[in-house]
Every structure is written in structure tokens, then in C-alpha cells.
Hints:
Blueprint: H1 2-15, H2 18-38, H3 42-55, H4 60-72, H5 76-89, H6 93-105, H7 109-122, H8 128-140, H9 144-157, H10 162-174, H11 178-190, H12 196-203
Helix pairs in contact: 2-3, 2-4, 3-4, 4-5, 5-6, 6-7, 7-8, 8-9, 8-10, 9-10, 10-11, 11-12
Amino acid sequence: MKTNNRLTTMIFIAMFSPIFLFAQTAIDFNSNGIAKANDSDYVAAIQEYDKAIQLDSNNAVIYFNRGMSKAKLKDYKGAIQDYTKSNQLQPNAETYFNCGFARYKAANLTGAMEDFDKVIAMNSSPAPEVFFYRGNIRFMNKDYEGAVGEFTKAIEVKSDYAKAYFNKGLSEHYLNQQEQSCKDFSKAKELGYGESQAALTKYCN
């Protein structure tokens, strides 16, 4: 009987040990953060993720989630820090993409391109947005030929990518490839991209 009591006591202690409470509480706070983020209450979401990280500072997912909420609030510096920490703990193509996008929005074009490079290295079939933003970076750096190549890849992945057609057309315009440029502006218009008509009127008539 004493043995059974001792066993029961050991089980009780194990269930309510700091390690058990640590894991469950961090998970709970992370779940609360997700719920707040789904309600678009990103400030409250970050507060929940902060609590989770205080209890579990080695969880890549929590840093990723907090980074997304910070990005929603346009705190790109904070988002980059969280995505970087998440990748240090557990490298992930989606995290590198989000970090690259945050760097892009923060005008760190070199850093953004490096992150997008990592996405491609880790994922044999990256999303078309990876190529699209790479194209935008090349365009902003006046590498119009490189931009055309990136936008073409985006279109190969997503054939109805209207904005990629438009930006490809704009890049071709700066390369004096007017015939192809106008074809791409027309395709963008056909796909419903609003700025296409103005480009057609300005460059193709």
C-alpha cells in the first residue's frame, strides 16, 4: 500500500513539475497569440507571444508568429529580428521569405535578395511571389534584363499573375523592347490589372 502511495505521489509531482507546466503554458500563450492575430488584434497577439517566449525562448514557431504580427503593424525591424531568431533555431523557407519581404519593405534590398536566394535554395518549387519581389529588386537596381528574367519565372509558376506581366512590360520598356512591352501591358490589362491602360496609353499609342 505504501508503494502505491509513493507511486501516486511521483506521478503527481511529474505532472506538475516545472517542465510540464513550462511546455503547456508556452503552448497556451502561443495559441492565445494566434487567436488574437486571427482577430487582427496584433498588439494583443504580440503580448501573448512575449509571454510564451519568456517561458520557452527556443521555440522557432513562436518567434515566427510574433514576427508576422509585427510585420502586420509595419514594425519591419522587429519582424526581421524575430524571423532571424526563428531561422537560427530552425531554418525554414517560409520564414526566409517572410524575412526577405520585411527587409524589402524596410528598403534593405540586398538583405531581401539574400533571403529570397535562400528560399530558392531550400525549396525546389518556390511561390511565384519569390520571383516577383526579386524582379522588383532588380528593377529598382536598374537591372532591367535581370528583372525581366525574374518576372518571367513568376509567370511560369502563375500564368495569370497580372502584376508580374505589368512589371515585366515596364522593364522591357526600359530595355527599348517596345513591342514585347506593349504585349505584356495588354496581357496585364486582360487579366484585370488597373494600371495597365495608363501604360498602354502612354507607351503604346
